[in-house]
């Protein structure tokens, strides 16, 4: 065993972290031409799934797998880029809805086209390996 790891469990955690960084950087490079971060893209994708309907920041946060608590700053950046709009809910004035514009919906579709083959990052794995890996990752998260 490599001396930098205390044991195989330590090596596993380091390996998971390194793999997460690899995937995150891979998607970051694909998004660079669109001037988007991975988190911004995920927000846009969630809003595009329900387009033309809107979501509140709380509803959006529930849909995201990211535990980043700073949804306000993320939304502010997308508003500044004119990719989403904030609207006061006519039924409840305390509620603020987030929505894509028609132009930003088309922008998201263009960016999404660059991810049509996003599975290619793991396409060299066999079906059995993918199934086993999915099972093990689920087991880690659902201990």
Automatic annotation (TrEMBL):
One of its GO terms (biological process) is response to stress. Residues 9-142 form the HTH marR-type domain. It holds the Pfam family MarR. It comes from the Bacteria. This is MarR family transcriptional regulator. InterPro entries: HTH_MarR-typ, MarR/SlyA-like, WH-like_DNA-bd_sf, WH_DNA-bd_sf. GO terms for molecular function: DNA-binding transcription factor activity. PROSITE patterns: HTH_MARR_2 (PS50995).
